[in-house]
Amino acid sequence: MKKKVTLRDLSEKLGLSTAAVSKALRGHQGVSEATRKLVMETAASMKYGGLSEPVKKEQRGTDAFIIVDRRELTEPHTMSTYFFIDNAMKAHGLEVAIHGVPMDGDDRAIFRLIESANPSALFLFGRFSQKFAEELKATGKITIVIDYDYPALNVDVVLPNDYQGAYTAVQHLVHAGHHRIGFIGDKRLSPGFHDRYNGFIDALEYWGLEANSKHIYDMKFKDAFGAINFNPIIRQIDYDDLPTAFFCANDPIAFVLNNSLNARGFKTPDDVSIVGFDNLDSSQWQYPPLTSVNYPREHIARKAVDLMLWRLEDRDSPCNKILVQPALVVRQSVATPRKMSN
């Protein structure tokens, strides 16, 4: 059987980038008429995908959907990720739309929309049930999962290395002189939170520090309706027995902790140092500005789009799990413990 001609084959034949070839094939602006004509003629001669004239943008619809939890549709983390995916798609002359559905996926409208709009690919972003993820993949669309992992589902995944990020956070606190380090999170909330907890515990062990159960707050942040609520932090922290530092499983947890400590007369970082995770834009506006593990949104978005384009050309290869390494953003919420600074 003759090998199917791919976008990469056209790119190598013409000496152009795959992005330029993709734009030319789709009639996208930013490609000269001469280049477009050359690409079209070469694609036709190589019998690329039974090529016909490119469909105009207003006729071809959206190339991919980003599917997110409806309640998190306007969250900064979601909007930032959408922005970077949109940019990465546009660089290839492609369009993406974002759609919110219930976290449990109990909404048939999204499947009707997928059938009618016929996107080439789906980006599933955030926490959904295994059943819903399986149903999405069963549509036959290229499915790329971002920021979550479904161990029982054979699907392409791009996510941050949560374990390493937590390890890096603890390393920073240890280097600052902290030996009594606490944790606040909910390892049942998602595989990412579980990995952050494991990274925290293993980092303590590596540096020979005690994982004191009195300072480890593995809380339950999801209520009976599936909504996330961080207020238990305020009620459950033992303010009479605090560690010198906390690693928080995400930035909103760190924000609540910082405000709660300040309300009780504790100062960050003089009394307690804090490190968060995600590096939300609002981290820099906290008082003091929060040290946080950066969620590499732009890099993850580009990797997800690259993976989608590769999968369009190679549907039979094994699935991938791409871990993107996060880095620490150091601000003013960490200091040497007082007893060490004397």
TrEMBL record:
Single annotated GO MF: DNA binding
Q: Which UniProt keywords apply?
A: DNA-binding, Repressor, Transcription, Transcription regulation
- The HTH lacI-type domain, residue ranges: 5-48
Q: Cite the SUPFAM superfamilies for this sequence.
A: lambda repressor-like DNA-binding domains, Periplasmic binding protein-like I
CDD domains the record matches: HTH_LacI (cd01392)
Q: Does the keyword Repressor apply?
A: yes
Q: What is one Pfam family matched by this protein?
A: Peripla_BP_3
Q: What name does the UniProt record give this protein?
A: LacI family DNA-binding transcriptional regulator
Q: Which species?
A: Paenibacillus mendelii
